[in-house]
Specification:
By secondary structure, the chain is mainly beta. The chain is globular and about 45 Å long. Helix content is 7%, strand content 22%. A four-stranded antiparallel sheet has the order 1-2-5-6, with no helix packed on it. Keywords: Disulfide bond.
Length: 167
């Protein structure tokens, strides 16, 4: 797991084993992203890389660098007026299931995300990392114009969330 936009007393990369979770608190006014990296291989000193969503730092810590697509992203803007905003985005492709569940606070803050493995239905044209991730059509084909010429149909309804768009 990695994040950009450092806030006090935190790291910008950490291991999150399968089935586990981590709670984080951020100060009012914080804005940033979290993403999961897969296929990681780090040595005892924290140097290495990941097969998907690597940040290019060569270490567990991302030091403010973003994920290399394809990467499932969670995005947060906290304390914008009286509201907080969060989403799970597939605009940079997809590499793993992710969900955001809010606890505490006020208002109706519903969970958001996708817990289905979309890689199983990723078209061959969009597959990356030996099938371990699915590129966005815009990244894979280069431009929205190419996207229109090579329109890809999906059977899974989750793919419609920010991955493909008509221009």
């Amino acid at each position: 797991m990695a994040r950009n936009y450092r806030y006090p007393n935190t790291t910008t990369g950490f291991e999150l084993t399968k089935g586990s979770s981590q709670s984080n608190q951020a100060p009012t006014g914080w804005s940033g992203r979290f993403w999961g990296r897969t296929g990681c291989n780090f040595d005892g000193s924290g140097h290495g890389s990941c097969a998907t969503a690597d940040c290019g730092s060569g270490q567990v810590e991302c030091n403010g660098a973003g994920a290399t697509p394809p990467a499932t992203l969670t995005e947060f803007t906290l304390g914008s007026g009286t509201m907080d905003f969060y989403d799970v985005s597939l605009v940079d492709g997809y590499n793993l299931p992710m969900i955001v569940e809010v606890s505490g606070g006020s208002g109706a803050c519903a969970p958001t995300g996708c817990v289905v493995d979309l890689n199983r239905n990723c078209p061959m044209e969009l597959r990356a990392a030996d099938g371990g991730s699915c590129r966005s059509a815009c990244e894979a084909f280069g431009t929205p114009r190419v996207l229109l010429q090579r329109r890809v149909q999906f059977t899974g309804s989750m793919y419609a969330v920010g991955v493909f768009a008509d221009v």
